[in-house]
Write a structure and sequence with these properties.
Length: 167
C-alpha cells in the first residue's frame, strides 16, 4: 500500500485495516468491561461476605443475649432455692424447738387429772378369757404392741387400740 497509495486494492486494504483497528478497539473495550464485571462481582461477593459476617455477628449477639438471660434465670432460681432452703431450715429449727417444748413435762397444772378408767379394757379382757370377745367391745390389754408386732403402722395401731366400746 505504501508503493501504490491510490491503487486499486488500496481502498479495500484501508477498509480491512480500519476493520482490524475497530475489532482491536472493541476487544480492548470488551476486556475492560470484563475486568469491570469481575471487579463488580468481586465487590458483590465481598459485600455478601460482609453481610453474612454481620448476620453471624447479629446471631452471635442474639445468642449471647439469650445465654445471658438464661444465666440470669439460673441465678434467680438459685436465689429462690437458697431462700426456700433457708425457710425450710428455719421451719425445721422451729419444729425442733416446739418438739423440745412439748417433750418437757408441765409441772404447773391448774387441776389434777383423774387416771383413765380401764373399765372398757378389763371388760374386753374378761370377755377374751371367756371366749366371748367381739371387736365391738374395744381394745384388750397389749393391743398396741400386738398391732405393731403384726406389721401395722403406729397411727393405725393408735387409732384401733384407742377406740371406744360400742356394744
Amino acid at each position: 500500500m505504501q508503493r501504490y497509495p491510490d491503487g486499486a486494492h488500496a481502498a479495500a486494504a484501508k477498509a480491512l485495516i480500519e476493520r482490524v483497528r475497530q475489532e482491536e478497539a472493541s476487544r480492548a473495550l470488551l476486556q475492560e468491561r470484563e475486568l469491570e464485571l469481575r471487579k463488580a462481582e468481586e465487590a458483590k461477593h465481598q459485600a455478601e461476605a460482609k453481610a453474612e459476617e454481620a448476620k453471624r455477628a447479629d446471631d452471635l449477639a442474639l445468642a449471647r443475649e439469650e445465654a445471658r438471660k438464661a444465666q440470669e434465670a439460673v441465678r434467680k432460681a438459685e436465689a429462690e432455692r437458697a431462700a426456700a432452703l433457708e425457710a425450710a431450715d428455719q421451719a425445721r429449727k422451729a419444729a425442733e424447738e416446739a418438739g423440745k417444748q412439748a417433750a418437757m413435762p408441765k409441772l404447773d397444772r391448774a387441776r389434777p387429772t383423774k387416771p383413765k378408767s380401764r373399765g372398757g379394757v378389763s371388760r374386753a379382757d374378761r370377755a377374751y378369757s371367756n371366749n366371748t370377745y367381739r371387736p365391738c367391745m374395744g381394745a384388750t390389754t397389749g393391743c398396741y404392741q400386738r398391732a405393731i408386732a403384726n406389721g401395722h403402722k403406729p397411727n393405725w395401731a393408735r387409732a384401733w387400740c384407742n377406740r371406744r366400746p360400742t356394744c
